[in-house]
Each structure stands twice: as structure tokens, then as C-alpha cells.
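Handout, page 2. Input:
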Amino acid sequence: MPIGKEVLLKRVEYLRDVQRSLEGAIKEGVAIVIASPIINLFVRYTEMFIVIATVIGASIVYAVYSLFKIQKEIRRVWEELMKEDPIYERIPPIAVFGVLALVASIIALLLTW
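Output:
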């Protein structure tokens, strides 16, 4: 039983929301790691500082792993969603404008040479 396009679009929206929240968590974790020397001034126990840094590092690694899994699933869902569309609907307009700008630049370069 094939899944409808609306269900796939809702799944992609959900995955994008999860992706954004994971990216935010990774940014916060990296900010804490960068600020760790300041944290070390307040946490006088070296063992506790090492535990805090290890937990934050492990959390960042797990968040990056989860982010890769989500991106892989988003790619799979998009491929399933776009497999029925004609090729001209899959090409983003910015790519067409980029190719046109490239051709225009080469023509302008050749004309001024």
C-alpha cells in the first residue's frame, strides 16, 4: 500500500523540526565546550570537570549521529516523494538561474576579450 504525498510531506516537516532542534543542541554543546575553561574556574574539582566535559562530548557525538540518521531518512523520503515528478519539477529554479548566469558570464568574458 503506497503512502500518500501528504503523509510524506508531514513526515519531512517533522524530520526537519527534529533536525533543527538537534542542530540547536549541537550548537549549545559546542558553546559549552568552548566555555569549558571558564566553567573549570567555578568547578574546582578536576574529576567533576572531566565528567561534565565527557558527558557533554558524548551528547554532542550522539546528537551528530542522530542528525546523520535523520538526514538519511529525509533523503530517502524525498526520493520517494519526488520519484513520480517530471525532471523539470525536480530542478530548483536557483540552479537554472545559476547556469544562465554562468553562460552569460562566459559570453561577456569572450566578448570583452
